[in-house]
Amino acid sequence: MLSRLALLLIVLVLAGCDRPKDGSSAPTTAAEAVPRSNTETAIYKDVSQPTNDRIADLIGRMTTEEKVAQLLSVWSDKHQMESEDYSFDPVKARQIIPHGIGHVARPSEASGNGEPGRTPAQHVAYVNAIQRYLKEETRLGIPALMHEESLHGLAAKDATSWGQPIAVAATFNRGLTRRLYATAARQAASRGVHVVLTPVVDIARDPRWGRVEETLGEDPFLAGEIGLQAVLGFQGDNDRWDPGEVYATLKHMAGHGEPEGGNNIAPANISERTLREVFLYPFRHIVRHGNVRNIMASYNEVNGVPSHANGWMLNDLLRGEWGYRGAVVSDYYGIEELSTRHAVADDLEAAAIGAIRAGIDIELPDAKAFPYLVAAVNSGELNEEILDTAVGRILRQKFERGLFENPYTDPEGALANTPDDDTLVRQAGTEAMILLENDGLLPLEDGLTIALIGPNADRVLHGGYTGEPHHFVTVRQGLEAYAAKHGGKILYAEGSRVTEPGSWYKDPVVPVSLSDDRARIEHAVSVAREADVIVLAVGGNELTSREAWAESHLGDRPSLELMGTQNELIDALSELEIPIVGLVFGGRPLNIRNLAEKSAAVFQCFYLGQETGHSVADVLHGVVAPSGKLPISIPRSAGHIPAYYNYKPTARRGYLLEDVNALYPFGYGLSYTTFEIGPPRLGTDLIPTDGNTTVTVDVTNTGKVTAKEVVQLYIRDNFSSVTRPIKELKGFQKLRLSPGETQAVTFEIGFDQLNYLNADMEYAVEPGTFQLMLGNSSRNGDLKSVTLTVVSQAR
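== Beta-glucosidase ==
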């Protein structure tokens, strides 16, 4: 009976109670009882029983080895469980996962080299074979959770791939975001996948960092709102797991997006106030509103403590203060790195014990450190209650997903990309294009001769974590397809290269020969002479901005300059005095001052997805008006970092002989029409600290083109007990207006918009005046303001 009571206590921890912070526990644990072996009448097999009872019953039947197996994943070793044709072999599996397994990583891959390869039907057949082995040939028949990458679409063969998250954020479109990620959820679930390792809600404050493309930009409110819609797209609105839904994973917690020197995984030396208000804000917001089921710890250290060993962050704050009840997963090899890189554990066993005590529930992607937990429990060094708590969190996902009753997936229902998916991605691409400059040249007339020049003009541009999407339409292909239907002529020349050909995944990055490039420039100039307009596609590529996961695979840069001879190409083409439309692709902001000075129009495109060429053609020719807004400020140079808009009052006094402001600020983006945003109107201009009001503006399309605009609300606490940013985004709404049409946009104002961490580190609204600024960018000249007074009590 004592053993059973201890198990029930553990389940109560899983359901809502805090677990011991120091590893202590009641003297009686599940390990003290002999595991029950009669599974025919087991409670855990009875779907009518409460989930807590099923978890407790199953844990009570498990050996220590079987428990630890639930906290492990298999990735590289899964190829040791395969035949020569990469099909699953249960005989070999008995040597690799004899006690079962918690996760199987990336079952879409077939080759064993880290790249996907299975067709949708093969994908399903493979996961079904694994589940059959686990269900029928392991002692307790516990199925596995299958996880895949899905940063901007399921990273698998023939799936749909839209723009990188930085481009999704540029749309400022909540509904569109949810539809995109619901597309990935349907495709993933149809192939037997249960968990996706996304969305990334790191706040990107250093554009030298190679992972900027994976983020939703520099602003915590925007990342929280767009990240929440991604989670809802994956998981739905409630706890019921409907067909086509999968578990999301928020990552990376925390402080990952402003690494020292812009170097991936470098220390994050951040005050607790900034950590909470900036870097942790999206995590807290989504935990409160999205019921996200997984959170991934980050590689970096925060103020000297690696996130994978940070019990304050993962236990006290995440689970205790915020009430999170899902699982915390390691980043790939993050536990191992506590010993091998951070040097806070002297061996893998110490790393495993430190990680699980800190709140990590499962080791991804391979069993490196956590297998040592068996010995740690058996020796008494690790209290088994901590192990059981982590096991329970993983089992809960399996029970709630219905895997014990139905672990298999119908191969006939496996989904691939469809024409409807193409339409959605094409729309997302158009809404992600940010018009930075336009002297009136755009939109282009039909029938023109266009010289399409540049290293990114005819290149597949997906960015990282992509897989093998169904197709990709290059800019050249898109413009040629448009010209074939509407008249005109496309002349093409490469002009220069960013790097020699390579890939995001593979290691070598080979610089371009300057002499070869200059020959390409000469040829491009000769081609462009015959054109009415030049479309110049420059920027970066997957090799110049990528995740630096090893010293042999780097992706961060100390410079924001265009690589190679791209500026020489810009200079040479500008001498022709033919109008230039610049398209800037790549994963992060670059120094584009030269391009901006010599072009009639410039777009920041980032990565637009598999329909890139069609999206570009639609916007250039005015089929769709651009409506993207910058989710991250574009600095004038690397020396202008940091350039984020929500800085403190003393941060930007100025530079000698240089403008201190961003070249293009957060929230900025032009249209083919003009919008008039009227003066803000408060519902009431005085409220108590616990009160609410509204602010409303009228928005009118004063031009001749139907278009979308993003109305943005910024707030500034004029005087406060601790310093506050000069402005903070607290609301946005995207609307579509016909010429002459006016719509009223209203934002709620209350605690959520006005609070901050006061001098006592408590979230509070202080009495005083608040500046409410509304407009279409964070730039002061684009905002109109009104003052709200907040008093200690109602008058």
